[in-house]
């Protein structure tokens, strides 16, 4: 089990808080091959009968391997991992009138995803959020490796689609919604929907508490 940070945009933080988002997909950055022959395929490593030299069992994990070189790599996530969410935030005390806006002195941070007036605070980028300021802890329940376009309609809905019922989805397919969301976040990085990259699909449960407070409890 490992603890690691994970970044989410404001809309995706709101989707997590509202119980709409229980999956996330992250690009697998594969090593460049010197030859065009061979291809990448999903596989698993570890599992029953596989042990380290000292006899420690190696749990089965999702992975990807190259059919020519035999190179195999596993995503940086595994069931049981705990992910503390990084989001755009502001530290209480950054503004002179914060003490009046935030009378509960147990609260040490504001979160832009919650802000009624998002321009009021001196917001700090999510990448700079420290562990103590995180308010959401995700426990990984499943990890899969797949091509991006293989996402199912149910999985697209679990990515945080704002329409959750069949009636609400009548005018919006979750698949199409997710495609647009993905391109908005990843197309400029060279990983747009049309490139159909390999991704790590992570399913998780949500606990609305700081990871260290959760551990203490």
Task: Name the descriptors.
5-stranded mixed beta sheet; globular; 217 residues
Summarize the structure.
It is built from five helices and ten strands; from the N terminus they run βαββββββαββααβα.
Please give the number of β-strands: 10
Q: Mean of residue pLDDT?
A: 85
Helix-strand string: EHEEEEEEHEEHHEH
Q: How large is the share of residues in beta strands?
A: 25-35%
| Global outline | globular
Low-confidence stretches: 96-106
The largest sheet has its strands arranged as 1-6-9-10-2
Radius of gyration: 20 Å
Q: What is the structural class? A: alpha+beta
Question: How would you summarize the topology of this molecule?
Answer:
Blueprint: E1 3-7, H1 10-17, E2 23-27, E3 40-45, E4 61-66, E5 72-73, E6 82-86, E7 89-91, H2 98-101, E8 109-111, E9 137-147, H3 153-158, H4 174-186, E10 198-207, H5 211-216
Parallel strand pairs: 1-6
Antiparallel strand pairs: 2-10, 3-4, 4-5, 6-9, 7-8, 9-10
Description of the structure:
The structure is a single chain. 17% of the residues lie in helices and 26% in strands. It is an alpha+beta fold and 217 residues long. A hairpin with a 5-residue loop joins strand 4 (61-66) and strand 5 (72-73). Mean pLDDT is 85; it is low at 96-106.
């Amino acid at each position: 089990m490992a603890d690691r940070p994970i970044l989410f945009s404001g809309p995706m933080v709101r989707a997590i808080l509202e119980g709409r988002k229980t999956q996330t997909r992250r690009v697998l950055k594969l090593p460049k091959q010197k030859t065009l022959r061979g291809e990448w395929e999903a596989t698993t490593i570890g599992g029953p009968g596989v042990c380290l030299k000292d006899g420690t069992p190696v749990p089965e994990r999702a992975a990807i391997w190259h059919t020519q070189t035999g190179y195999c790599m596993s995503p940086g996530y595994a069931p049981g991992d705990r992910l503390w969410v990084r989001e755009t935030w502001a530290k209480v005390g950054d503004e002179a009138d914060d003490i009046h806006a935030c009378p509960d002195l147990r609260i040490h941070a504001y979160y832009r995803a919650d802000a009624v007036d998002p321009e009021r605070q001196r917001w700090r980028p999510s990448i700079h959020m420290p562990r103590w300021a995180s308010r959401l802890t995700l426990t990984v329940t499943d990890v899969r490796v797949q091509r991006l376009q293989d996402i199912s309609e149910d999985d697209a809905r679990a990515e945080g689609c704002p329409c959750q019922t069949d009636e609400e989805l009548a005018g919006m397919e979750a698949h199409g919604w997710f495609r647009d969301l993905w391109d908005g976040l990843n197309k400029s990085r060279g990983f747009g929907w049309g490139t159909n990259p390999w991704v790590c699909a992570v399913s998780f449960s949500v606990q609305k508490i700081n990871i260290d407070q959760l551990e203490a409890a």
